Amino acid sequence: xxxxxxxxSIIIPALNEEKCMADLVSYLKSNSTxxxxxxxxxxxxxSSDATVTVxxxxxxxxxxxxxxxxxxxxxxxxxAKGGILYFLHADTxxxxxxxxxxxxxVRTGNPVGCFQMKFDSNSRFLSFFAWFTRINHYLCRGxxxxxxxxxxxxxxxNGYNENYTIxxxxxxxxxxxxxxxxxxxxxxxxxSARRYEAHGEMRLQxxxxxxxxxxxxxxxxxxLYDYYQRKIALR
Length: 235
What we know:
This protein is an alpha/beta fold. The chain folds into 2 domains: 3-192, Alpha-Beta Complex (Spore Coat Polysaccharide Biosynthesis Protein SpsA, Chain A); 194-235, no CATH class. 43% of the residues lie in helices and 20% in strands. An 8-stranded mixed sheet has the order 3-2-1-4-7-6-8-5, with helices on both faces. Helix 2 (51-57) links the parallel strand 2 and strand 3 (61-64). The longest helix has 16 residues, at 201-216. The termini are far apart. The mean pLDDT is 95.
């Protein structure tokens, strides 16, 4: 890759994330080298709060897409100018100097990968499941771990499957594992435990496990979304 292709475009799908947006953008800037970051793109899926205003005020680029993380991520990738795409959830903070870790991985022949993960919680239950993110198997992957991928390789994958309203990260990464060597970086992102705190740790992890199992048995995107709506979203 040319030197210019080692610039990173950070792509963050968002929907009503005004509470964390200012801190997120500020954190990304203060924990990376500006030379390495080409842009921070917030892909808004129709927020009804001040997400867009806060993002712009703090120096991020805002674009718009139809609601749905897969659609938002693909739209961000289409807009991005960097040679490396870094997909990040709005409630997840990457480790200090994440940019140099990603660029070094790509320079040494790794077109795609992620960080390990920990929660912003002292819960032993959550720490137990977070431990498995160090294992290099697609079943241990998820969008909360963030994902870096070169633009060229992303184009070969055809991007995220927009038929998936949920589970889009897992479906995408499973395809990636069949196409290339996947790199697990030896540092951790910190992701919010807010969903577990809202729904109950064991209960939510159980339902996520069922969704994985349903997918393994061949359930399609509509079936997975139906289960999610009945067991998680509507509770």
